[in-house]
Amino acid sequence: MRTRTATDDAILTLVLPVAEALDMEIVRIRVKSGKTQIVQIMAEKSDGTMNVEDCAKLSRGLYDILEETDPIRGEYTLEVSSPGIDRPLTMPAHFARWQGFRAKVELDRLVEGQKRFAGQLVGFEDGSVLMDLPKEDETALIPFDWIADAKLVLTDELIKADLAARGAPSGSDETSGDTP
Fold first, then answer.
1. Using CB atoms within 10 A as the burial measure, which of 11, 75, 110, 158 is most buried?
2. Structure pTM?
């Protein structure tokens, strides 16, 4: 799920060593078509953070290899960003790391008449994402290979966890909506 196309895969192969040398993980790569193509690379440091300076550092590190190998036909714009608070979940470790939080999952096939599910992540086990779905008594086991897209749902709990990870007080005015 980190990539969708052969071009995305080729770019991932090129950028992984650079990211790993900077102690970063590539979360997702997408090449978007248009008048000028856009190569979107979403990454984060091993501690789960990624600021503007980190994005610039990765971008500078990728410049030479992308120019040398030229994996994209024609002109393109490189965009390096963090996954954001309602981040995509693209690898098994992401589902385990974010257990307890709400997520949306879209499958590549119909299951019980639907492709989209939303619920609370319970973890990852034996190749399957574990989710507690509304109105279901048992935890759903969703094969990772069936997932086309997945991301966290923006909730107050997720915002509080993000603020805590950044060192901000969890009861700050930012989360409560109060103004000083």
1. 11
2. 0.86
